[in-house]
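TL;DR need structure tokens for one chain.
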Amino acid sequence: MDVKLTVVQPAYFPTIRTLSRISSADVVVWGETFVYKRNATIHRARIKTAAGAHWLTIPVLTKGRRGQLIRDVEIDPTHHWQRSHIKSLRVNYRNTPYYFFLAEEIAGLLRQKWRSLNDVALESTKFLCAKMGLPCRFVKSGDLPVVQDRSERVRQWLRSCGCETYVIEKDDEKYIDPRVIEKDGGRMLSLDFTHLNYHQSFGAFVADLSALDLLFNEGEMSESIVRTSHQLR
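>> reply
TL;DR here they are.
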């Protein structure tokens, strides 16, 4: 059996692109030991409103913490971000076909007393995977060997997780030497992602939103849309 592994950067209610990569693999390495970047989607999710795209942002503590790892990022406890996010989702998605089937569970997830950005990002991702029928095993990068060289890191992570094939996005191929992976009989597959359109509220289609937008609008069809949005080569 060809067991596939991929690596994803943590994100709060991630995009279809991230879920597409997750759907391509059996084991997903959760990159919690990557360096936190403020301009990434680790702490924010993009939704659609009548006025266009809008970010739902989790406030985090960054002052004097430059270069911190994602798993070490703490949420700022002085902000009531959960209430704001729940309200924004209600206002902008209450007229979608599947909002009321999902709203209570999402609100319950958000209302938990989160301190770690990494934890809420992981649980929000697992929630989307569960609702879309995307079974996979998450392994935290902090539980795997620490290796500086990217190609050697992939080789060792494949071995540690009992996998044979590494799935990487097409644009990232240049960072990995497949010959290193092949030393242990492994191989590398390239994921070619295409953003498929689906039904949305508020006019013209907007790409690269949180996969929550897909779930609220397409429900049980979300899995098919995610799985058919890529090809492995």
